[in-house]
Amino acid sequence: EAGVTQFPSHSVIEKGQTVTLRCDPISGHDNLYWYRRVMGKEIKFLLHFVKESKQDESGMPNNRFLAERTGGTYSTLKVQPAELEDSGVYFCASSGDRGDYGYTFGSGTRLTVV
Amino acid sequence: GNSVTQMEGPVTLSEEAFLTINCTYTATGYPSLFWYVQYPGEGLQLLLKATKADDKGSNKGFEATYRKETTSFHLEKGSVQVSDSAVYFCALRSKAAGNKLTFGGGTRVLVKP
Question: What pLDDT is attached to residue B28?
């Protein structure tokens, strides 16, 4: 089966601009997660979708971040306006029923805000 | 809340050396424990897992034992190869925390021929 696909793989934008990251989960996976690793620190949870609904968005850092999953398929994560501290690697993962151990991660999007 | 602490890297080894990466955790409830690996240019891959105390996870020559008494899940490999060069992340999940993963800071391992 195809894995979790994220794009772009890299993005360099200026402070104040908008960037949209996309994640295509494994087909049929209801659970979709966003995580990020900032400045070589630990990977932190951002939010969790079950189908098109936000199950848990407790990790979203502020209202400059907006995640959507229309139709319960792919998801987008928009950062608007981007700040320097948003630089890092954004990972997406998906899993099947009940979000059990079978997380599959994408390769990540490396975002650099200059 | 949940937290994971793992040794900082980088760890530089020669081929066939013994590798240990320490990992300790704090968690509510009864977490499941994981090691993930990120090879250069690739995404996170599950390396091994353990779901209850005294379980041993193993894969690709790596092992880790879930030690509840010491809240630890140290990763070991007896003889590393150059291809084991990667960043290793210890992580946990607990139902009490909504099943999301809590990661440690990652340990970069470099194996030299």
Answer: 82
Give pLDDT tens digits for B65-93: 999 999 999 999 999 999 999 999 999 99
B46 touches chain A (CB under 8 A): yes
- pLDDT at residue A96, as a whole number: 80
Distance CA A106, CA A104 (A): 7
Interface of B with A in 60-79 (CB under 8 A): none
User: Which residues in chain A have their CB less than 8 angstroms from residue B100's CB?
Assistant: 33, 45, 48, 56, 59
Per-residue pLDDT band for A95 (boundaries 50, 70, 90) equals confident
The answer to whether residues B62 and B76 touch, using CB atoms and an 8 Å cutoff, is yes
